Structure formats: C-alpha cells, structure tokens
Amino acid sequence: MFADLLKRLTAPAPETLPDTDARLALTALLVRVARSDGEYDHDERARIDRIARTRYGLTEDDANRLRADAEALESEAPDTVRFTRAIKDAVPYEQRMGVIEALWSVVLADGVRDPEEDSLLRLVSNMLGITDRDSAMARQRVEAKE
C-alpha cells in the first residue's frame, strides 16, 4: 500500500515530499517511537491523534485515519536509521524540529520516560540532524506544557 512512498523515501536522492506524504512519514515516526518500549497504549495513540489535529488542522476522524495509515506505514518501513535518514533528506528542517517536540510529547504521554524510548529518541534526533541540546530543549518545552 505504501510501496511508492517508501520507494521515494529510500531513493538515493529523495525529493522533498508533498505535504500529505510528509505528514504520513512524520506521523509514522511518532508511531515508531511510541511502539519502541513494547507498549503502544491508548494514551500514546490519543496523543498522536491530538498532535495530528493540532499540527495539521485535522478533524478527529481525519487524525484517526492519518494515525491508522501511519501505523501501517511504520510496520512496512525499513529500519529506523534508514527511515529517519530518508525523512531528514525529504522534509525541511523546520518541520523536523517540530517533530522532535511531538516525539517527546508521545514519549511523555504515559508519564514514564522509558529507557528504550529515550534511546530511540536520541538516535532519531541525531538522524534528523537535531542536536542533543536542541532535543533536550524541545523536551523541556513539552514538559513545561504538560
């Protein structure tokens, strides 16, 4: 179902993604981080839906559909390193920085900073070209809002 998007993402020189594909790829990354601790619960799914509604101005139904599509894409996507690097090459920096905040929001949704999630988020941040310092500042902004 997502073969064309994955092919474009993993091309040797990926082009900037159209907005709908970028939304899907970035939401799939949220799903991947949420699933990284082996528990993908209602709070994390609700947080991803809320992020999609707020970030993209979607209705509740559209956010649910985007998350469902992102769950399917995430399960078909290559390893995290290749997937994240592909997103980095295809998505502008400004959008990637916002995604780091969204990722921290998902990690913190259940009130627990799991070591697996922390580790994956550190890797993802680095692969997206976001420094540890900027990622930490993003986490602090999210914690201040919680």
Automatic annotation (TrEMBL):
InterPro entries: DjlA_N, TerB-like. Gene3D superfamilies: TerB-like. Residues 23-140 form the Co-chaperone DjlA N-terminal domain. SUPFAM superfamilies: TerB-like (SSF158682). Pfam families: TerB. This is Co-chaperone DjlA N-terminal domain-containing protein. The lineage of its organism: Bacteria, Pseudomonadati, Pseudomonadota, Alphaproteobacteria, Rhodobacterales.
